Amino acid sequence: MYSGAIPQHHVETIESDFQSLGLSPPTLQALRDLGFYHPTPIQAGVIPLALAGRDVVGLAQTGSGKTAAFVLPLIERIQPGSGVRGLILSPTREIALQTWSFLEILGAHRGMKAAILIGGVAYGPQFDRLKAKPEFVVATPGRLLDHVERRTVRLDGVSELVIDEADHMLDLGFMPQIQRVLDLLPKVRHTTMFSATMPDAVERLTRQFLSDPERVDIRPVGGAASGIEHRLYLVAESAKRDCLLALLREQPGLTLVFTRRKIDAEWLSKALEKHGIEVERIHGDLSQAKRVQALQGLRSGRHRVLVATDVAARGIDVRGIDHVVQFDLPDSVEDYVHRSGRTARGAAKGVVSTIATWLDKAFLKDLEDTLGEPLRRCEIAGVEPYHPLKEVRAERGSLHRGKAPLARRRRF
Ligand code: AMP
After folding, report:
1. Pocket flag, ligand 1, residue 62 (CB < 6 Å)
2. How far apart are the C-alpha atoms of 314 and 165, rounded to whole Å?
3. What global pTM score does this model have?
4. Is 91 in the pocket of ligand 1 (CB under 6 A)?
């Protein structure tokens, strides 16, 4: 129904082996077949606890190996042929697809199957898959509730629950749906939750729905992925597009460009195309088929630039993204961290370029406080850097009124 192999990235692993985590010989063989020989830190932290039946909160980003950290215990703890026992809630279709690939590949040696219930695609294949009595369901919350209402899936046998990227679910406004799903599940179950950050609403979810959870926190200090060089280009609003074009010319690698709105992803990708850049776009108004096509085009090298909105980009797992450009700054520092995590995955290196105007200065201060260091101020040939005095003249009509120009100059 869906194509999807497990994406292979270079990740940082630790010395110990999977055997020491308590996994069974067939699962160890399946891991070797995949080319996974040593666990990543999140896998080493979560797997023994989850195998022992503890509820776990894993604080880790995409790219840390967290998918296998929750899939492996699920495969060990659930018996084949037992109906839907494992439920994984994913924030986006792309993340759900990646999880489904892991479940299918790692579950195959025990004859276990997974259904994937995601929005934006036809119901028919999902009905067929559910009729085949899968042990696992991986779903985005909205489509899962549609199936519950149609009585095509039953959740009363779920004994293992995973809530993946809880903070992202929160950002997407999925909390009411998650609460509804959780109310449908048996009270006695084992729950693992992952999040890259721990905002209050996620803490509350933990207190309400997890039982005495262990916390495994492997986030890098400062929250952002390591191996990333953060650069800041301060320009006038009218110079943002030229700045992007210059950056794309200067850095020829695979590049992901973020805009805030779907409409901006559309016009910007068309503008880049006019300048001869091989570009695709991905946002929530596009069909699942178009989104998959855009990702495959990037993976295969058909185009080297992808313009994306935050929602569409969360699950992007494309090897070797060298450069992330924040054409618009996101709503939150957490989103900046998520966006940046698309590059420098695992142990790779990457550059994150932020194109900002003076209007972004409050956000930039928050961001730098969180990262614990200033972003490197950069300039690029052909694009005039931001001049505080000019901006103020345009705003006020006079250079000599007020103290704001000096304050701005000092800040940047
Ligand atoms: P994730 O954080 O789950 O998206 O995983 C990031 C990437 O690391 C994926 O491409 C996985 O295939 C890969 N990966 C996860 N665990 C391991 C491991 N123990 N050894 C090698 N690669 C891994």
Report:
1. yes
2. 10
3. 0.64
4. no
